[in-house]
Amino acid sequence: MTGALNPGFGIYVHWPFCLSKCPYCDFNSHVREGVDQARWRAALLAEIDHYAARTPGRTVTSIFFGGGTPSLMEPATAAAVIDRVAECWPVTADLEITLEANPSSVEAGRFADLAAAGVNRVSLGVQALDDRALAFLGRRHDAAEALAALEVAQRHFGRVSFDLIYARPGQTVADWRTELERAASFGTEHLSVYQLTIEPGTRFATLAARGELDLPGEETQAELYEATQEILGAAGLPAYEISNHARPGAECRHNLTYWRYGDYAGVGPGAHGRLTVGETKIATRAHRAPEIWLERTEARGHGAHEDDPIDAEARRSEMLLMGLRLAEGVPLARIGEELGSDLDQLMDRAKLDRLVRGGFLALDDQRLRATSAGLQRLNAVLASLLG
Ligand SMILES: C[S@@+](CC[C@H](N)C(=O)[O-])C[C@H]1O[C@@H](n2cnc3c(N)ncnc32)[C@H](O)[C@@H]1O
Ligand code: SF4
Description:
- By secondary structure, the chain is an alpha/beta fold.
- It is built from 17 helices and 15 strands.
- The chain has a nine-stranded mixed β-sheet, with helices on both faces. A three-stranded antiparallel β-sheet has the order 10-11-12, with no helix packed on it. A three-stranded antiparallel β-sheet has the order 13-15-14.
- α7 links the parallel β5 and β6.
């Protein structure tokens, strides 16, 4: 069992390839003509062995195939990864195995084989239910194809989530309400709703710099956020994290491990990890370029840069940065366990009290959490708490 006090141990596996690059996306994703699946499979397995040797005695609670577009992986590759994880570590009986999928008909055709490989949860990148918005977002599917893929996914996997992007140029609160109410009617147990962010280096960043993206202003953004909470709350999918909504009990356990500041191994190009080795928590980070990662892994068994030990100060910041995203907040007992100190040793009590009085944070004898007002400006809250 995992829980706020036992955050679990996850394995993240990054598949860095996509059929095309979406104009908003700054993930480590690349378009390549041909991918040698056998070579990639062997390298992923080698890196799993490497991390298993570094984490004896751990029990794996989740595997997450992220990307890029891991639904482009051959199901045999996913099966080999899952089998190797189970050979390398003890795994829990209810091991959660999630795969991110693009909702096209080609990928839906692979769902049966991916389910047979052991995948038991998919997260579909639907992004919008409106064809014009999908074209604007550079997606290769239209709404009908996405909904058909959602139906196939619901047939093959016990657990299905999908992603939507809101606060798109020109989007009104009324449009979003209609779209979201429709999204909530499809019976998924989990929905991720991301506010469109303009990431440096993307095509949207170029358009925004030229003044060609008419993004909603702050006031509309706040209204969109509030409408999201209201509609999904009423649909039985309350937010358990800033952008993630689920039926209680249907939260993504793998992502909860990150937010609860548990350990995870990051496998594949650009993957990050957090591992406790002896008394030290270390950050691992793999080479981002797929070809460099592949060559390094083939040559020496892993594609990671040197380990980065996380000092006490950074550990405190990371833990609060992640934990305050969650509705449950950060249990004070976890702070003691992870950092060996109590709240007063950790932070300036006057700053904390000011944020509590301002209505941005809430503190009781069990936990520290962000209020709804705090969640909407979490970066600023953290900056004044930790600065
Ligand atoms: C790694 S991507 C998902 C994988 C899959 N390739 C896809 O596109 O469906 C994770 C999710 O992050 C969200 N996302 C990525 N970039 C974003 C941005 N700039 N603003 C808002 N959401 C974003 C999208 O909803 C996307 O589905
Ligand atoms: S959003 Fe998904 S499909 Fe689009 S480029 Fe990023 S990872 Fe690839």
